[in-house]
Amino acid sequence: MRSQSPEYLRFFYAFGADESAIAEVLSASRMDIYSGVFWQADLAGVFMLRGWDAGYEVPSFGVLIDEKYRGGAFMRLTLDTAKLICRLSGAKRLMAKIHPDNVSPRGARRLGLYQTGVEESTGNIIYHLEL
């Protein structure tokens, strides 16, 4: 995942890029989920469900798929896995904040996401998905 171009990573800022910042986030997690998706020896992507540690009932879904695997089924796989984790955890829906240049409204609808707002500070579209 370190080989991603800055342009590709511009919408992913869930945590810092250095190993100590990532280790700090992962070690502090109690109920939040951070998971890697591997293909053979490659880390093909990471996804997360965050917000439970902060007391939110609706977790926020985030994902980063390696550029090499973009356009494959990894996005769908991570979202389906996140939905299963949410159901097993008792969540009724999940949220995702996505920059409008990162996914089209049509693409979001194909994934089952529906727009519920706009985050003023970033311009990100707020989507929800009912489980």
What does this structure look like?
The chain is of the alpha+beta class and 131 residues long. The chain has one domain (6-130): 3-Layer(aba) Sandwich (Aminopeptidase). Helices cover 27% and strands 30% of the residues. It has 4 helices and 6 strands; from the N terminus they run H-H-E-E-E-H-E-H-E-E. It has helices at residues 6-9, 19-28, 74-89, 105-110, and strands spanning 33-39, 42-50, 60-65, 93-98, 114-118, 125-130. The strands form 2 sheets. Strands 1-2-3 form a 3-stranded antiparallel sheet, covered by helices on one side. A 3-stranded antiparallel sheet has the order 4-6-5. A hairpin with a 6-residue loop joins strand 5 and strand 6 (125-130). The longest helix has 16 residues, at 74-89. The termini are far apart. The model has no long low-confidence stretch (mean pLDDT 86).
Instruction: Say how many strands there are.
Output: 6
Distance between the termini: 30 Å
Structural class: alpha+beta
- Global geometry: globular
Largest sheet: 3 strands, antiparallel
Oligomer: single chain
**Any idea how many domains?**
1
Order of helices and strands: HHEEEHEHEE
CATH homologous superfamily descriptor = Gcn5-related N-acetyltransferase (GNAT)
Q: What is the CATH class name?
A: Alpha Beta
Q: Which terms would index this structure?
A:
about 130 residues; 3-stranded antiparallel β-sheet; about 30% strand; Aminopeptidase; 6 strands
